[in-house]
C-alpha cells in the first residue's frame, strides 16, 4: 500500500486482528493461572494464523494458506498441548510472582508498547501486503512479550512469553516479507518446536530438583 487514500476493508481487518493479538499479550501478562496463559497463547496463535489466511486471500499469496494451516497446527494445537501435559505432570497451577505487582507490570507494558508503536510508526515503513500500522502493533507485541519474560519468575510464564514473542515476529514477517519462500517460514516453525522441547526438558529437570517451577532459586545462583 502507498500510505495515501482512505483505508480499505482489508486494512481495517488486518489492523483489527493485529490489535487483538496485542490485547491477548496483555491478558497473558495479567493471567495468574499457568493454564490460562497457555490457553491465551493458543488463542493468540490461532489469531496470527487467521491473519496469515487473510493476507493470503486479500493479497493473493496462496502459499500463505499452507503457512496458516501449519502455524495453526504447530502453535495453536501441538505446542499448547505439550505445555499443558507438562503442567499436568508437574501439578502446578499458579504463575510465579513477578518482579513488580501485576498492575505495575501492566502499566510498564503499556508504556513499552506505546514506545514501540510510535517509534516504528515514525519510520514510515510501507508494505504492499499489510498496512504499516500492523507492523507497529507487531513490534509492540514483541516488546510486551519481553516484559512477560523478564518480569515473571516461573519457567512456564517465561516460555509462554518466548513463544508469544515468536508470534510477534511472525506478524512482522507478514508485513515486511510475506513473499518469503515457504520452506523458510516452515523452518522457523520447526525451530519453535525445538524451543518447546528445550523448555520442556528445563521444566522437568527444574521441577524434579526443586519441586517448583519458580526461577527464583536459579536467579540466586548468579555470581
State the helical fraction. over 70%
Q: How much strand? A: under 5%
Count structural domains: 1
Average pLDDT confidence is 78
Number of strands: 0
Structural class: mainly alpha
The number of helical elements comes to 8
Q: Please tell me how large the radius of gyration is.
A: 18 Å
The biggest beta sheet is recorded as: none
Contiguous low-pLDDT stretches (5 residues minimum) are none
Distance between the termini: 52 Å
Task: Give the SSE order as H and E letters.
Answer: HHHHHHHH
Tell me, what's the shape?
globular
Secondary-structure blueprint of this entry?
Layout (H helix, E strand, L loop, with lengths): L8 H22 L3 H26 L3 H28 L11 H20 L10 H20 L3 H22 L5 H29 L5 H5 L3
Helix pairs in contact: 1-2, 1-5, 1-6, 2-3, 2-6, 3-7, 4-5, 5-6, 6-7
Description:
- This protein has 223 residues and is an all-alpha fold.
- The chain has one domain.
- Helices cover 77% and strands 0% of the residues.
- The protein has 8 helices and no strands.
- α1 packs antiparallel against α2 (34-59), α2 runs antiparallel to α3 and α5 (132-151) packs antiparallel against α6.
- It starts with 8 loop residues before the first helix and ends with a helix.
- Its main location: membrane.
- It is a multi-pass membrane protein.
- It comes from Nostocoides japonicum T1-X7.
Amino acid at each position: 500500500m502507498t500510505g495515501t487514500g482512505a483505508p480499505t476493508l482489508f486494512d481495517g481487518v488486518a489492523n483489527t486482528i493485529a490489535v487483538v493479538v496485542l490485547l491477548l499479550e496483555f491478558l497473558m501478562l495479567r493471567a495468574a493461572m499457568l493454564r490460562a496463559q497457555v490457553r491465551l497463547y493458543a488463542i493468540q496463535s490461532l489469531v496470527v494464523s487467521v491473519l496469515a489466511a487473510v493476507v493470503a486471500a486479500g493479497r493473493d499469496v496462496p502459499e500463505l494458506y499452507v503457512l496458516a494451516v501449519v502455524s495453526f497446527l504447530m502453535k495453536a494445537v501441538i505446542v499448547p498441548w505439550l505445555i499443558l501435559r507438562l503442567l499436568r505432570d508437574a501439578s502446578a497451577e499458579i504463575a510465579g510472582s513477578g518482579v513488580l505487582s501485576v498492575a505495575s507490570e501492566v502499566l510498564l507494558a503499556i508504556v513499552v508498547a506505546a514506545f514501540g508503536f510510535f517509534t516504528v510508526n515514525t519510520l514510515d515503513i510501507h508494505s504492499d501486503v499489510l498496512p504499516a500500522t500492523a507492523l507497529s502493533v507487531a513490534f509492540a507485541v514483541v516488546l510486551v512479550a519481553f516484559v512477560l519474560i523478564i518480569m515473571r519468575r516461573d519457567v512456564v510464564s517465561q516460555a509462554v512469553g518466548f513463544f508469544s514473542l515468536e508470534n510477534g515476529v511472525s506478524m512482522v514477517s507478514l508485513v515486511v516479507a510475506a513473499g518469503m519462500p515457504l520452506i523458510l517460514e516452515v523452518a522457523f516453525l520447526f525451530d519453535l518446536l525445538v524451543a518447546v522441547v528445550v523448555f520442556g526438558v528445563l521444566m522437568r529437570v527444574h521441577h524434579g530438583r526443586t519441586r517448583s517451577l519458580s526461577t527464583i532459586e536459579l536467579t540466586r545462583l548468579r555470581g
